[in-house]
Amino acid sequence: MGEKSPRVLELTETIIRLNPAHYSAWYVPFCYVHHASSSCNGRQYRYETLVAISAPLEPELALTNTLTQASPKTYQVWHHRRLLLTALREPAPELAFNEEVLRIDPKNYHTWSHRQWLLAHFNQADLWADELPFVERLLADDVRNNSAWHHRFFVSFENGNKAGTGQDSEEAVRRELA
């Protein structure tokens, strides 16, 4: 099934620090490279290695902070963050991190997509609470930010649907038409 050890993490970290978009460093198990084994799977090998050796996930999240800020358009890093956040189950600090990355590039698709995933996946009222004021601030800075407009629509209409009340959606329509 491939080696899962601290050595694997060191090797893959070296590679991804050089090139965070290196697909094979994240996803392809070394057993594909060395044995072409059909017993290998194409799941996120670095994450599986972390879990297999019971490595703490917080330092890995800190590593992805650095990688994400240096290469915010690299989807492999964002996907890895999703896996880590799902396991850590502490989504609240991620909104602040996401906002930092949006300051670098306020129209970055991957950053916005990750933010929407975070809100929808964890679906906690405290995560949704400040989203409309957040997006309004971004629109005040740049009214032509289509990504922010898209997120505003997402917040206005997905929040109510996710909460299951339906009333929030009606309120959002009235607010948007006013």
Structure characterization notes:
This protein is mainly alpha-helical. It has a domain at 91-178. It has 12 helices and no strands. The protein has helices at residues 6-18, 23-26, 30-35, 45-52, 58-70, 75-88, 92-104, 109-122, 125-128, 131-141, 146-163, 167-177. Helix 6 runs parallel beside helix 8 (109-122). The longest helix is centred in the last third of the chain and has 18 residues, at 146-163. It starts with 5 loop residues before the first helix and ends with a helix. Mean pLDDT is 87; it is low at 30-38 and 161-166.
Layout of helices and strands:
Elements: H1 6-18, H2 23-26, H3 30-35, H4 45-52, H5 58-70, H6 75-88, H7 92-104, H8 109-122, H9 125-128, H10 131-141, H11 146-163, H12 167-177
Portion of residues in beta strands equals under 5%
H and E string: HHHHHHHHHHHH
Nearest-angstrom radius of gyration? 19 Å
In the predicted model, the low-confidence regions spanning at least 5 consecutive residues are 30-38, 161-166
> Number of DSSP strands?
0
Q: What do the pLDDT scores average to?
A: 87
Please count the helical segments. 12
| Major sheet characteristics | none
Anisotropy-based shape: elongated
Helix/strand-derived category reads mainly alpha
Helix proportion range? over 70%
| Amino-to-carboxy terminus distance | 59 Å
